[in-house]
Automatic annotation (TrEMBL):
Domain STIL N-terminal: 7-105
Pfam family, any one: STIL_N
InterPro entries: STIL (IPR026123), STIL_N (IPR057731)
Protein name stated in the entry: STIL N-terminal domain-containing protein
Alphabetical GO biological process terms: microtubule organizing center organization; mitotic spindle organization; protein localization to centrosome; smoothened signaling pathway
PANTHER family per record: SCL-INTERRUPTING LOCUS PROTEIN, TAL1 SCL INTERRUPTING LOCUS
GO CC, one annotated term: microtubule organizing center
Amino acid sequence: TLTLILTNPAQAVTEASLGYVTMNQTRKLVLLLETDPSVSLVQMLGVWVQLPYSQHSNSSNDSNNTNCDMDVQHPFVWAACVRYLCSDAVKRRVYVDSHTFLLVL
């Protein structure tokens, strides 16, 4: 279902979802569900979060950063970040700098 959601942006998302971000051998980002068994086996770069479309404004092509700013301040995004940092399932985190990670919205 994750692939369907990510490849079909016209499909309405009614629930918030999250998972973890890793990179494959060709240095492309790979989004994993939080429940994926490989989460404990591969290096993780960060967390991805998808909020319901109702959380966004009507214009997805807005030229300012208001939507992104609102997303970053959303409590679910903060909870997903804390969950990533505290998860026992994530065994191998990759940090560019001390306790920094990638957040994909």
